[in-house]
Amino acid sequence: MDIRLGNGFDVHAFGPGDHITLCGVQVPHDKGLIGHSDADVGMHTVTDAIYGALARGDIGQHFPPTDPRWKGAASDIFLRHAVALAADMGFEISNVDCTLICEAPKIGPHAAQMRAVMAGIMELGQDRVSVKATTSERLGFTGRGEGIACIATAALIKP
Ligand SMILES: Nc1ccn([C@@H]2O[C@H](COP(=O)(O)O)[C@@H](O)[C@H]2O)c(=O)n1
Ligand SMILES: C[C@@]1(CO)OP(=O)(O)OP(=O)(O)OC[C@H]1O
Hints:
- The protein contains 5 helices and 7 strands.
- The chain has helices at about 40-55, 60, 75-90, 110-120, 140-145, and strands at about 1-15, 20, 25-30, 30-35, 90-100, 130-135, 145-159.
- A hairpin with a 2-residue loop joins strand 2 (about 20) and strand 3 (about 25-30).
- Helix 1 (about 40-55) runs parallel beside helix 3 (about 75-90).
- The chain is globular, with a radius of gyration of 15 Å.
- The model has no long low-confidence stretch (mean pLDDT about 100).
- The structure holds the ligand Nc1ccn([C@@H]2O[C@H](COP(=O)(O)O)[C@@H](O)[C@H]2O)c(=O)n1 and 2C-methyl-D-erythritol 2,4-cyclodiphosphate.
């Protein structure tokens, strides 16, 4: 059995808006997130963790931020691509775990829906998809409410 681990990290800055999209879920907020795509920092991070496990580059190499095709794109496109690449290479996703880092919005009330959305895209049981959150105790750029950061780990297996 071939077991691979990958990590992901991403940050998006807050800008004007009245909601953000995180892990495929629209969360009401007094700000939006800035990005070339829909700026779904959670889904980007999980996508990068899968690319990392496969040693197949990163999200910007597959979907360049200079390419107008991805302007405003819903980020499930990127995650679906990483999942398909894993399958093409003979890997199954075992589980993913991500942690969103922000003072606000509160992630807890939305975490179950986020897990369900990403589990659906990855065709995994929800017990294999974890979404957690932490503040950074008001320290640093997340602490000042300037943006949201996310870290993720993905485990892939080739039976
Ligand atoms: N944006 C956030 C941040 C935190 N949570 C939840 O609150 C708990 C306590 O956070 P600390 O940073 O003070 O440790 C954390 O474990 C999360 O359950 C959240 O839902 N959304
Ligand atoms: C997702 C892409 C798609 O163009 O755009 P952004 O929304 O800017 O997101 P980021 O995480 O900065 O990285 C890479 C890009 O590939």
